[in-house]
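Annual report, structural modelling task.

Input specification for the zinc ion complex:
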Amino acid sequence: PDLLDSALIRPGRFDRRVLLSMPDLVERKAIIELHMKGKPFTTDVDIERLARRTGGFSGADLANMLNEAAILAAREAKKAIDGRDLEEAATKVKLGPQRKRMQSERDRKLAAYHESGHAVVGHFIPNLDPVHKISIVARGMTGGHTSMFPEEDRFNETKSRLVGQISMAMGGRAAEEMVFKDLSTGASSDLEIATSIAKAMVTEYGMSALGPINVKPRAMFGMWARMEEGEGLSEAMQSKVDVEVKKILDSCYAQAQLILRKNKTKLDKVAKALLEKETLDTDEFEKIVGKKKRTYG
Ligand code: ZN
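The model returned the following structure:
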């Protein structure tokens, strides 16, 4: 809707909005197979794994990914597309191409600790997915990234997983503070993510001391997803919401700090490995921090 001319979305024109949800695991597998047709692949390419790794990808993203992978393989004069081409293509579709630029040693070290902070915090929170990849290769607007490997498509989140996700988002900033005794601006999108999850917990999911209540502002009829922040909330209620959001964020930050303090040696080792290799996969990461301990539910 935000791409359409505002004349088109004026009330009375197109009042009905069709929501297309992202393809699920089975659908992604089918879409990937469809776009693989006619392209050569090495035998190590695992479609099931690829479908799992691409949670949140649209059909167009998947088509893009397979085209990109073909281009990457052709560029290196390979006879077939392999798993590495696909991994690089998947990352590129979501985060943009690698940005080769001169980085000072301090910037690289900061990025390494920041990403290691996310990964280590995420690893030691039992109900989060295992770390899939950590990288300090800059792409698009990001100076690095850490991604998880979803073991299943989730259509529902639990409070403990949401809290875990906030703590993990805070892990980058917490590591910077701990190691450099200083803060960078690199964590601003992490804080944005953390804050929006916390807000949703309080105002939509009834997961705070305010209890089971939905005070989320509603979209107005005939308009597309245009809502006024805090509209319809009394000032008293709004300030209660703010207090609860702040409480969640503070306790998650404290949890991230605690995990990193307890595992400082591992944090150092992960950061060092990242500085050497720039990118670590699950195996390389778990060799340093140990296998992921899971609790389900
Ligand atoms: Zn971050």
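The longest helix spans residues 235-262.
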